[in-house]
Design a protein that fits this description.
By secondary structure, this protein is of the alpha+beta class. It contains 28 helices and 21 strands. It folds into four domains: 231 residues, no CATH class; 162 residues, no CATH class; 221 residues, no CATH class; 134 residues, no CATH class.
Length: 850
């Protein structure tokens, strides 16, 4: 064999020799392929579902929005000038008013009340899409009602809660309506965002005289536009924003019909992709172990090639090409599964989604998954491949691969580090979540280092402890196997431990998300929020509440809503970015003297009789997050009028109390002239809640009561759904970890066969040998579980603290299950491959080793 060949000749020869070796089949590479394919499939499937939903949202943007464009105003209707501009720009317009209220059925002791989200529509609604009703009828017919009362439709869950059926009357405020049908489909429901109550649809004119749309009450108006074909949405948006954004107008168009859902899908899928990458990292351990095991079996072949004069580069290329070909096969299998499963399950997934999804083959998610798979395969195979340099011709007479240097050479370490940096950078780029990506990568590296240290220390401890264990031979044999040369302690602890680390972190995140609402509730939460209390109703409202012995406490405050438009004469979004305070309208109150319990952290509160230029007291934590300082000016649009005020103090606002909290408070003279209502929180004994609500609703039908526990349940349902999605995303990691564990057990079956043969020759029974195998597996599983728990707790805390910005507590049932799972998984894998070594005849095994 000519050792010195031109690069092209060397490549041809390496390709030919690699092909010959691959003709022997995939024996030894099944786990390699399974680990790589499973990780790639998980990422490809998540990306395909995300792309399908995003495409569905984009294609159905006008239907989801209810028109080609929408102009929204807070707590006011559009002026005649604004309406004229809409009519000039559009071929058709539709006016909608949206607010919360109480739907009431019956009277006296049999009265039933429930919170509902009311949508008052006009005859043009919906401009796009179709409303579905049961029994089937036209929406106009349903809302026309009867000769006695106007009609309404509502979601079935609200009908069931109130005990209503079509033909039954109910009240909204002081107005009476006839329920005509159940609302089963609302084309623009996805654009409405989160609501605390089920939907009720009525005609906008029928709300006149109900007392629900008085000056200062909390409602929003939305004007949907159907635009002429060929309209440039960006140009129209620019014109509308320039004319009306200073009046509190918010623009949305069909390019992003349901931005809240789109953002949620993007963030959740990004998180799940990172969970999938964690699973791919777990699979990488299996890939590395499989390559090491394969190359160990090729020591004789490699030594023969070296004897024939093959240079190191040629040998490296031969096996690199083999691994590359198998990696391409594994990635291809993963892409087929990852793209195929969502397509096969598309009808089921679509039926479960409340939004449209266009399932198809999307190249970008598949390219992203393939790139992740290729980089992972490279990172985890270069280290064992680099050890080929240490094999000499003398390896024909000894196990040179097992004796080779464990660490790659410095140049190879630099290459692996560069590939790892590229993988992390691409993950951050594709996901758009730099902080979460870095935390995930740091957590995985921390876990790997911790597990490698644990495995090394365990092997050292086992070598020193076995001599002291004389009366327990099975334990001594187990310790000897763990600390001996060629021990599988490192691959087992790494593969199982990394999988359990990811699972432990996900388990802690899952548990903390599910318990966030209950854990963060204060010791004493209010029974009700009452909103839309008119100023002339406050005396009577207060008298009824204060006169109830079952009421422990009441808080009330004037309530307005406003949109922060400018900070220091710059657009608010330029200063505060995407902070939640500037993304929509926010609650504002006013006060003369400083309210009891207010804690000023910086600046000073205004004088009781202050009547100068408007001043603002801003929530301290939110001000720090937005980069605000004392003396900054802020323009807030309230009911179409812009109020410019100076920040003169920061104060503590604790939103976790479930009580009353305002980001912004202004001096009394700045806002008392604006139409507004009051809100109140009432803390009452459970027995007093129903009579209190009944009396207040009877006396003041326009007031809306929001039961705090009902609101918490709605939020809790969303969090449970998020936690469930994360748990399912971790399933691939768990399966991959178990596959890697099986691979490690399979690769060590030869060593166990020899060990069993020697022990049998020395007189050991099968039961005692099996017990030693079980002890070894249990010790390794327990070590991996304990270290994984430490790494998982750290990772879970980091995600909850830095990403979710929530408190963290250890979920002990999940934590204990991780350790138990590590022990059980290792036992199952080890004992599953122990039967064949125990059945082998010692003579045949030892003769083969001679």
């Amino acid at each position: 064999m000519n050792a010195r060949r031109a690069p092209k000749g060397r490549l041809r020869l390496a390709t030919r020799l690699a092909g010959r070796e691959l003709r022997g089949g995939l024996k030894g590479f099944r786990i390699f392929l399974a680990c790589l394919a499973l990780g790639v499939a998980a990422i490809a499937a998540i990306g395909t579902v995300r792309a399908s939903i995003e495409t569905g949202l984009a294609e159905s943007g006008a239907v989801l929005l209810g028109g080609d464009a929408q102009m929204e105003f807070t707590y006011r209707f559009a002026t005649e000038i604004e309406k004229r501009w809409m009519r000039d720009a559009a071929t058709a317009t539709s006016e909608i008013v949206d607010f919360r209220s109480m739907a009431v059925r019956g009277d006296g002791d049999s009265v039933e009340r429930a919170l509902t989200q009311v949508k008052g529509v006009d005859d043009a609604y919906p401009l796009t899409g179709k409303v579905s009703l049961d029994p089937a009828m036209d929406l106009a017919t349903a809302l026309a009602g009867t000769a006695d009362h106007p009609g309404a439709v509502m979601e079935r869950v609200l009908m069931d809660r109130l005990g209503l059926a079509p033909g039954d009357p109910f009240r909204l405020g002081t107005g009476t309506f006839i329920l005509m049908a159940a609302l089963t489909g609302e084309p623009d429901s996805a654009s409405a965002g989160f609501s605390l109550g089920p939907r009720t649809l009525v005609l906008r004119p029928d709300l006149q005289g109900s007392g629900l749309l008085a000056a200062g009450t909390l409602f929003s108006t939305k004007y949907r536009l159907r635009l002429p074909d060929g309209t440039d949405l960006e140009t129209l948006k620019t014109e509308a924003t320039a004319r009306f954004s200073g009046a509190g107008m918010r623009w949305r168009d069909a390019r992003n019909g349901a931005p809240g859902i789109a953002q949620f899908v993007e963030r959740l899928s990004s998180f799940l992709v990172l969970v999938g990458l964690s699973g791919l990292a777990v699979g990488g351990i299996g890939v590395s172990s499989a390559v090491s095991s394969y190359l160990s079996g090729k020591t004789g072949v490699i030594a023969t090639l070296r004897t024939l004069g093959a240079e190191r580069r040629l040998i490296f290329m031969i096996y690199f090409l083999q691994i590359a070909a198998l990696s391409v096969l594994g990635i291809a299998i993963g892409l087929v599964i990852g793209a195929g499963v969502p397509l096969l399950l598309a009808p089921i997934i679509t039926a479960q989604l409340p939004i449209p999804a266009a399932f198809a083959l999307y190249p970008m998610p598949l390219f992203e998954a393939a790139l992740y798979g290729a980089l992972t395969a490279l990172i985890f195979t270069l280290a064992p491949l680099s050890r080929l340099d240490d094999i000499r011709a003398a390896a024909l007479f000894r196990d040179a691969f097992g004796a080779a240097h464990k660490w790659p050479r410095p140049a190879m370490i630099a290459v692996i580090a560069a590939l790892l940096a590229a993988l992390i950078g691409l993950a951050a780029l594709f996901s758009g979540a730099w902080k979460l990506t870095l935390i995930t990568a740091g957590g995985l590296l921390f876990a790997l280092c911790l597990l490698a240290l644990c495995a090394t220390c365990m092997a050292w401890a086992a070598r020193h402890a076995r001599a002291r264990v004389r009366r327990a031979p099975a334990l001594r044999w187990a310790l000897a196997a763990i600390g001996g040369r060629g021990s599988d302690a490192v691959p087992v602890v790494l593969s199982l431990g990394l999988g359990l680390s990811v699972l432990a972190a996900v388990g802690q995140i899952d548990g903390n998300l599910r318990g966030a609402i209950a854990r963060d509730l204060p010791d004493e939460a209010p029974s009700y929020f009452f909103v839309d209390i008119q100023k002339d109703q406050m005396d009577g409202f207060t008298a009824r509440v204060d006169g109830d012995k079952g009421v422990r406490r009441m808080q009330s405050a004037p309530m307005l809503r406003g949109v922060i438009t400018r900070i220091n004469d710059r657009p608010a979004a330029e200063v505060a970015g995407e902070h939640w305070v500037v993304r929509g309208d926010r609650g504002i109150t006013y006060a003369g003297s400083m309210p009891d319990g207010t804690k000023i952290t910086a600046g000073t509160w205004w004088a009781d009789d202050y009547s100068g230029p408007p001043q603002i007291s801003f929530a301290a934590q939110e001000a720090e997050e937005m980069g605000l300082h004392l003396g900054d000016t802020m323009a807030v649009n309230i009911l179409g009028r812009e109020v410019e005020a100076t920040i003169t103090s920061f104060r503590e606002v604790d939103f976790s109390t479930a009580g009353m909290g305002f980001v912004m408070a202004m001096n009394e003279a700045a806002l008392t002239g604006a139409p507004h209502s009051f809100i109140a929180t009432v803390y009452a004994d459970e027995t007093a809640e129903a009579p209190l609500l009944r009396d207040l609703a009877k006396a003041y039908p326009n007031i809306t009561a929001i039961r705090v526990r009902d609101a918490i349940e709605r939020v809790s349902t969303l969090l449970n759904g998020l936690a469930g999605a994360i748990s399912y995303g971790a399933l691939a990691t768990l399966v991959t970890g178990f596959l890697v564990l099986i691979g490690a057990a399979a690769s060590g079956s030869g060593a166990r066969r020899t060990e069993a043969a020697i022990l049998k020759t020395l007189g050991a029974t099968r039961a005692r040998i099996l017990w030693s195998f079980a002890l070894r597996a249990g010790l390794l599983g327990a070590a991996a579980g304990v270290v994984a728990l430490a790494a998982g707790l750290t990772g879970g805390w980091a995600v909850m603290h830095f990403i979710m910005e929530s408190d963290f507590e250890v979920i002990w049932p999940s934590a204990i299950a991780i350790i138990a799972g590590g022990i059980v998984a290792t036992l199952l894998a080890a004992l599953g491959f122990a039967w064949a070594p125990l059945q082998a005849r010692p003579a045949g095994v030892l003769r083969a080793r001679a």
